[in-house]
Amino acid sequence: MKILVLGNGLIATATAAIAAVGTNSVALASRSDKVSDVGLARHGVELFRSNPEFFWSDAQIMAGNSEVVISALGVSSPALAESHPEKYFNEAREIIENLNQMAHTNPGLRLFVVTSGGTVYGETPREGAPEEFPKNPVSHYGLHNSHIEDFLLSSPVGLEGRVCCLRVSNPYGVSQTGVQSRSFVDAALASALSGTPLTILGDGEHVRDFIHIEDAATLIARSIESQDAPPPVLNIGTGIGHSLNEVTEMIEHRTGRLIGIHHEARRTFDVHVNVLDSRKAFSLAGFHPRLLEDGLGANGVM
Ramachandran region of residue 149, left (φ > 0), alpha (ψ -120 to 50) or beta? Predict the structure, then answer.
């Protein structure tokens, strides 16, 4: 299978490396020179760096030689989207227009689009929200990602079943390509090992679904390779929530070191509970991600 990955972050590079295992031919198109070609090359991924001005035109050409495009470009972050909503709405619109054109001009091309990472739209049940759970965006970040999903899935390409929107929960850890996440899990671990204070926004009772980046990438790659057609929306998480306080306690127990906590005011656009019911992805991929307790020992960190 010929796969084109768009992006240069943690999810893009990790998924490219996992997807390159076996007989797949994988290329990654980046609009940044920060991506290491050494980390990708040893996994058989071909890296193409493009000037931001010409990124989409180059990507359109590369898509013509691909069967699958995985877009992991993302739309900023919750904080940036909240402070500059118009700027990042335009960024979302740019992603929509170019991916739609890409699929329209290449009949048969399938799109797998990462529409969120970290925070997903609104509150969910503690036991996890399935893909059909009603969306209720409480931030501009959620609105932008919801807009991407709604437009692509209602377009002719989406109605043909050639679009799958990937809602990735909170990835943590170091990928095979050496890219480090910036998740709360890694920040807490770094604080424990260095002895520096850890900042928590709010009381630490916020609940999130943390998934190791290699497991997230495996779920994505195997879902693409599955003989079964993926649903329009696919959750990529563990289905198990942990509060920030539970994470710090777990890391303190594993490292034997106390973490100094500095509390700051909770942001108004942060949801309290966000856990994804990802059983569809588990079934499609034939793979179940590890528990957080086990993931903390990955990459030789603990």
Answer: alpha
Domains and CATH numbers, the chain: 2-171+209-239+273-295 (3.40.50.720)
The answer to whether the CB of 152 falls within 8 A of the CB of 165 is: yes
Flag whether the pTM goes above 0.85.
Answer: yes
Q: What is the pLDDT of residue 248?
A: 97
- How many Å apart are CA 84 and CA 148, to the nearest integer? 17
Span 109-134, mean pLDDT? Answer: 90
* Residue-wise pLDDT tens digits, 136-170: 899 999 999 999 999 999 999 999 999 999 999 99
Radius of gyration of the chain (CA): 19
Beta-carbon count within 10 A of 223 CB: 24
pLDDT > 90 in the chain, percent = 77
Phi, psi of 116 (to 5 degrees): -165, 160
Mean pLDDT on 187-205: 95
Range list of β-strands (E), 95-187: 110-117, 163-168, 170-172
